[in-house]
Amino acid sequence: MTVTKTQLADAYSAVLTKEFSDDWDRNFSRKDASRLLESLWPVVSDLALKDTKKKTPGSVPLGHLGRIKMRYKPATKARKGTNPFTGEPATFKAKPATLQPRFTPAKGLKDEAGKYFKKKMK
């Protein structure tokens, strides 16, 4: 099942209301939770892209969920090769250097996935 953004906002609003309603004297709506999620992503992306001029940029921990790390891929030069289907010579284009985000799940998330899998496979 794929979770939609609305379902995620509903789940967050329920948790926020449960955890913080007594402290802040308010219930959190779907709109509040959606605004929280929207404000979270720029912070995480800015932190992940910080110090990306280095060959090995830093990483951003996301609590029990995991860690986001930016991976540097160097540029490649144009090269010659052969088309595996026809055997004709071909030229492969050069690619610029890029940064690619990578997600590494935390131990807690891996353990929960294992428990879920074992329960489903019984």
Walk me through what this model shows.
With 122 residues, the protein is of the alpha+beta class. The chain folds into two domains: 1-43, no CATH class; 50-122, no CATH class. The chain is built from three helices and five strands. The strands form two sheets. It has a three-stranded antiparallel sheet with strand order 1-2-5. A two-stranded antiparallel sheet has the order 3-4. Strand 3 and strand 4 (89-92) form a beta hairpin. Helix 1 (5-24) packs across helix 2.
pLDDT < 50 runs, ≥5 residues: none
Using only C-alpha atoms, the radius of gyration works out to: 22 Å
Helical stretch tally? 3
**Helix-strand pattern, N to C?**
HHEEEEEH
- For the record, give the distance between the C-alpha atoms at the N and C termini, rounded to a whole number: 20 Å
How many domains in all?
Answer: 2
Strand order of the largest sheet: 1-2-5
- By DSSP, the count of extended strands is 5
Mean pLDDT: 86
Q: Sheet bearing the most strands, described?
A: 3 strands, antiparallel
Measured as a percent range, the helix fraction is 40-55%
Structural class: alpha+beta
Globular, elongated, flat, extended or rod-shaped: what is the shape?
A: elongated
Residue share in β-strands: 15-25%
